[in-house]
Amino acid sequence: MAKDVFSTFQAAEYCDTSYMSIKRWIMSGKLKAYKTPGGHNRINKRDLINFMMKNNIPITEKVDIDIIRRKILIVDDDIQVREGIANYLRMNGQNYEVVTAEDGFEAGIIVNQFNPDLIILDLLMPKINGFKVCEKIKKNLLTKDIKILVLTGYANKKNVKKAYESGADKVLPKPLDMEKLLEEINLVI
Predict the structure, then answer these.
(1) What's the pLDDT tens digit per position in 30-88?
(2) Which residues of 103-132 are buried (b: 16+ CB within 10 A; e: fewer)?
(3) Which of 25, 64, 176, 183 makes an SS bond possible with 30, Cβ 3.0 to 4.6 Å?
(4) Can you name the residues that pair with 35 across neighbouring β-strands?
(5) If we measure between CA atoms, which residue out of 165, 85, 177 comes closest to residue 122?
(6) How far apart, in whole angstroms, are the C-alpha atoms of residue 56 and residue 4?
(7) Rounded to the nearest 5°, which phi and psi values hold at 76?
(8) In a 3-state reduction of DSSP, which class is residue 176?
């Protein structure tokens, strides 16, 4: 069975580097890790592979494509928008795994299970609006690194400013050309 979680020593061996380098990368926030109840760092293989790719560290083993596959959650109460984007990304994306949610409440549940790299988020939705979703994701230590791309039909100065203050990484107006959306997704991720 393949190893999915590494200690700092195992991660150092996997990257062919020192234990102290791994520790520095974790402490600086460059390498995503979590602590065990005993206070030891653990690194998910997916996060380690993504870090290695981002920093041009050679990967010596054949890597399962699902490890480096980018995960995208689309949250919009308009089914046509939601499914239109999802279908476009599934057909034209660059190895994206795409799931959808129809409101902020459902998005919260999915984020914890799916652990997306990017959320494409509508601002004005029933139950929990996009501003609150942004705030909750960015304030949580486990989800704060998820990128958020806001798509809104109400891109006035007030909403755009509030979206960025809530934690959005990029705000774009609706309607948006799908090729432009794909370009922006690649920039944000």
Answers:
(1) 898 998 888 999 998 888 888 887 788 888 776 655 556 789 999 999 999 999 999 99
(2) bbebbbebbeebebbbbbbbbebeebbbbb
(3) 25
(4) 41
(5) 85
(6) 21
(7) -160, 135
(8) coil
Burial of 57 (0-12, 13-18, 19+ CB in 10 A): middle
pTM (2 d.p.): 0.68
> Which tokens in the block code for residue 169?
């990484």
Query: Residue 126 pLDDT > 70, yes or no?
Result: yes
pLDDT at residue 99 tops 70: yes
The answer, yes or no, to whether residue 8 has pLDDT greater than 80, is yes
Strand order in the sheet with 70-75: 96-101, 70-75, 118-121, 147-152, 170-173
Over the Cα atoms of the chain, what is R_g?
18
What domains can be seen in the chain, in order of their start residue?
Answer: 5-65 (1.10.1660.10), 69-188 (3.40.50.2300)
- Ordered alpha helix ranges (H), 1-156: 8-15, 19-27, 45-54, 65-68, 79-92, 104-114, 130-139
The pLDDT mean for the chain works out to 87
pLDDT given at position 1:
36
Closest C-alpha among 33, 51, 52, 30 to residue 42: 33
Residue 101 has pLDDT above 70, yes or no: yes
